[in-house]
From TrEMBL:
PANTHER family: 23S RRNA METHYLTRANSFERASE, RADICAL SAM CORE DOMAIN-CONTAINING PROTEIN. S-adenosyl-L-methionine binds at residues 156-157, 188, 211-213, 288. Reaction proceeds by a ping-pong mechanism involving intermediate methylation of a conserved cysteine residue. It comes from the Bacteria. The lineage of its organism: Bacteria, Candidatus Uhriibacteriota. Belongs to the radical SAM superfamily. RlmN family. The gene is rlmN. Pfam families: Radical_SAM. GO terms for biological process: rRNA base methylation; tRNA methylation. InterPro entries: Aldolase_TIM, Methyltransferase_A, RNA_MTrfase_RlmN, rRNA_lsu_MTrfase_RlmN/Cfr, rSAM, rSAM_sf. This is Probable dual-specificity RNA methyltransferase RlmN. Specifically methylates position 2 of adenine 2503 in 23S rRNA and position 2 of adenine 37 in tRNAs. It catalyses: adenosine(37) in tRNA + 2 reduced [2Fe-2S]-[ferredoxin] + 2 S-adenosyl-L-methionine = 2-methyladenosine(37) in tRNA + 5'-deoxyadenosine + L-methionine + 2 oxidized [2Fe-2S]-[ferredoxin] + S-adenosyl-L-homocysteine; adenosine(2503) in 23S rRNA + 2 reduced [2Fe-2S]-[ferredoxin] + 2 S-adenosyl-L-methionine = 2-methyladenosine(2503) in 23S rRNA + 5'-deoxyadenosine + L-methionine + 2 oxidized [2Fe-2S]-[ferredoxin] + S-adenosyl-L-homocysteine. Binds 1 [4Fe-4S] cluster. The cluster is coordinated with 3 cysteines and an exchangeable S-adenosyl-L-methionine.
């Protein structure tokens, strides 16, 4: 829902102050799918909203469900024709996690990520981010479920769109919004230090995840150009300040690339790099092919994990969802403005 358009209509119609709260209850509480369902609103206002305020700022134009049935990817078209992707992941323990996009495309150009190869087009608004979660919330309502977790790990770099991302997180968390606990909302960054510093001062207790993927500056700069601007020493300094201030655990994401970052020596360097805090946790991620890199074989992934643990590092293998529908880590890469059934089949 476009909150600015809503505010304009309510002001133009001289609606009482409580009317906006009614609308928000209808949208976020009752999860209406059409303004006509908002029967607590005057009929004249409903007609105005139908004409001037679309219930969603995004339109689902294609979808795919994994063979296991535990993940669904939706391609959304924005009002200006841009396309983004979002993923619903249904866990065995009944958690339902939505992975949202914060940008159309991405400017960060990480070598292993399909999204960045398509370039950056624009930031999303807070409403466009929230509407991704609302879409899946309405979908789950039909089977008696709810969205329990949200991760900002879809298309784009969240801290490159900080204000809209935090505004969306506040709405998702608010009792007047979807009421998702702040500790069930995670923001992943490739390492934009100013964003980490701003998050450190936020009162909202969100989870922070760092896309690390290399244990030294030379390799990380090759894989992630952002490291030239914010090398590991500066990044870790900001993360340590965050931990000191918030006492919150930080997740470090490490995509295992065959012959690139998965040697025993690199496991040792990673352990040394992250030995400074018991609140650091490493998520080892199986690479899903999107270009020239290859995934590390399972035996070496297991060895890498055991080596980290032997050095006292908290670490796990992260469960992957949706590889068969190109919904897994690093695979979201909608081309700009295709249409119809070509959307899900046109991935690189």
């Amino acid at each position: 829902m476009d909150s600015k358009l809503l505010a304009q209509v309510l002001k133009q119609d001289n609606q009482p102050d409580y009317r906006r709260r009614q609308v928000e209850t209808d949208v976020f509480g009752h999860l209406i799918s059409d303004w006509e369902q908002a029967t607590d609103l005057p009929a004249t206002l409903r007609a105005r909203l139908i004409e001037h305020v679309p219930l969603s700022t995004i339109e689902a134009v294609d979808s795919g469900e994994s063979k296991r049935g535990d993940s669904t990817k939706i391609v959304f078209r924005l009002a200006d024709g841009e396309l983004i992707e979002s993923v619903l992941m249904c866990h065995r323990d009944a958690r339902n996690t939505v992975c949202v996009s914060s940008q159309a495309g991405c400017p960060m150009r990480c070598a292993f990520c399909a999204t960045g190869r398509g370039g950056f087009r624009r930031n999303l608004t807070a409403d466009e981010i929230v509407d991704q979660v609302l879409h899946f919330t309405r979908q789950l309502k039909t089977v008696g479920g709810r969205v329990s977790n949200v991760v900002f790990m879809g298309m784009g770099e969240p801290f490159h769109n900080y204000d809209a991302v935090l505004s969306a997180a506040r709405t998702l968390n608010s009792a007047d919004g979807l009421g998702i606990a702040a500790r069930r909302i995670s923001i992943s960054t490739c390492g934009l230090v100013p964003g980490i510093e701003r998050l450190t001062d936020e009162p909202l207790q969100l989870n922070l995840a760092i896309s690390l993927h290399a244990p030294d500056d030379e390799l990380r700069s090759r894989l992630m150009p952002v490291n030239d601007a914010y090398p590991l020493a500066e990044l870790l300094s900001a993360v340590n300040a965050y931990v000191t201030r918030t006492r919150r655990k930080v997740m470090f994401e490490y995509l295992l690339l065959d012959g690139v970052n998965d040697s025993p020596e690199q496991a040792d360097r990673l352990a040394e790099l992250l030995s400074g805090s018991p609140l650091f946790h490493v998520n080892l991620i199986r690479f899903h092919r999107t270009g020239d890199f290859r995934p590390t074989p399972k035996s070496r992934r297991d060895d890498f994990l055991l080596q980290l643990k032997s050095r006292g590092i908290s670490a796990t293998h992260r469960v992957s969802f949706g590889e068969d529908i190109k919904a897994a880590c690093g695979m979201l890469a909608t081309k700009n403005k295709p249409t119809g059934k070509d959307l899900l089949s046109s991935r690189p």
